[in-house]
Amino acid sequence: MRIFNGTALAARLNAETQARVAELGRAPRCRVLLDGSNAGMAAYGARLADSAVAAGIDLETESYPQAAEVLPRLATLAADATLDAVATLYPLPAGVDPLQAALTLGAAKDIDGLHPENAGLLALGAPARAPATARACRLIAEDIAGPLTGREVVLVGASRIVGRPLAQLLLDAGATVTLTHADTRDLAAHTRGAEIVITAAGRAGLIGPDHLADGTVVLDVSINRGAHGVIGDVDLAALADRDVTVTHVPDGVGPVTTGCLLANIAATACEAGS
Amino acid sequence: MRIFNGTALAARLNAETQARVAELGRAPRCRVLLDGSNAGMAAYGARLADSAVAAGIDLETESYPQAAEVLPRLATLAADATLDAVATLYPLPAGVDPLQAALTLGAAKDIDGLHPENAGLLALGAPARAPATARACRLIAEDIAGPLTGREVVLVGASRIVGRPLAQLLLDAGATVTLTHADTRDLAAHTRGAEIVITAAGRAGLIGPDHLADGTVVLDVSINRGAHGVIGDVDLAALADRDVTVTHVPDGVGPVTTGCLLANIAATACEAGS
């Protein structure tokens, strides 16, 4: 088994972002809303803030207010002319409708493809700001496996934030794409036929030896927290002797996703102007 | 082989539309732009106009102007307060960008999911007006095969107007979905594993006996014109003795698509009010 670490690819993305910011001549400003009591979100927010500093981006995190206050808070941030972008990390507080949140924030400051206009541009082949995780997965797949034209890709998970937008990007790249999910009857039959498996199911141990043919590349998007720290969906121990490539958790997809989010922030600021 | 005719399902849809229009108390008005020199488009336009009369919809067709005049014409139609909806049949005249055309028309009068806002709402799970062909395929699949949860569906063709929006609707219904296309290496391997195959490739004879397992339901969206009239992608003669169900061309998916387009026109008029 080979383990893919995303740090080098992320560094290349971040260098591009840094150059764009330097050209812009001012620090793009982004607010990130997150649930501080969720260890995963808090850790992601902290990594994001660290990377932002290096890229020349002024990024502040803040905790979600109570559910009833989320939309008013987003309306305030939407109207704040000093902010270029606002990220609303998922899951949102219980009771907050994702679509209403995105509509309240507006398309201009949405950097994760959550607003209908941005999701629609992606679906119609003119992605302005593809969701960061989806874009990261496409870049990693190409980095490991080369051009995706005609490649057999199976997605495990068909969510609106990862699987579905990722399918659009993979189709744009010429891949044959299968979307599987919790209702899929025989997951292993699909993944065994894949050259590239991208799993975002959030179920530790889901992908084992019976799921993969020799030579398969597996992108593990999931971050599952357990007694032994964070692990993905792939059963690494059971695959240790197999001829497969698996992305590290959390240092595979994670840093590249961060890099794509920072690139989206810089792009938003460049659209807004100096 | 069993042949599915869409007339009965379309009649049910059209009765619903008629009832909605009666409740609205006025005839929704729609303009349909098409290329009169394209026999397929002209025939579709004529069928649409006939069905519209029965549903109580005031639908007029007009020919596309020269390419340079298409966007100005769409801007005029967008500003025409007496029109509820405008359909721009594909393919657009050469040189006209589909996204620019949709943006010029605006989301409010778009009845085929071509505007980013409408495409985005579909991608985010809140479809206001799903593209007519995609919605027709979901309805026909459910009509023939029952609930789609966990069903194995393979799409042949991943276009932005049929395959991709259809994938969204099928995922919403719980199906496992594979999107294949011209770059797919082994199409038959995919379609042989499917319970439902939906082909919109536009290649006569593409789907033959080697492509289908016993019991498969095939929706044939394509309308290919040849020496012997219109045919779909399915090689009917070679499948005559097989245990498969195939939709009629053009009276399978066609009338249901027309029904879905008329339903979208009525929905647009209801949103606009009386």
TrEMBL record, chains A, B:
Domain Tetrahydrofolate dehydrogenase/cyclohydrolase NAD(P)-binding: 131-269
Catalytic activity entry: (6R)-5,10-methylene-5,6,7,8-tetrahydrofolate + NADP(+) = (6R)-5,10-methenyltetrahydrofolate + NADPH; (6R)-5,10-methenyltetrahydrofolate + H2O = (6R)-10-formyltetrahydrofolate + H(+)
Taxonomic lineage from the root: Bacteria, Pseudomonadati, Pseudomonadota, Alphaproteobacteria, Rhodobacterales
Any Pfam family hit: THF_DHG_CYH
Protein name listed in UniProt: Bifunctional protein FolD
Keywords annotated in UniProt: Amino-acid biosynthesis, Histidine biosynthesis, Hydrolase, Methionine biosynthesis, Multifunctional enzyme, NADP, One-carbon metabolism, Oxidoreductase, Purine biosynthesis
SUPFAM superfamilies per record: Aminoacid dehydrogenase-like, N-terminal domain (SSF53223), NAD(P)-binding Rossmann-fold domains (SSF51735)
Family the UniProt entry places it in: Belongs to the tetrahydrofolate dehydrogenase/cyclohydrolase family.
Associated pathway: One-carbon metabolism; tetrahydrofolate interconversion
Superkingdom in the source lineage: Bacteria
Cleaved signal peptide residues: none
Gene label: folD_2
Species assigned in the record: Pseudooceanicola marinus
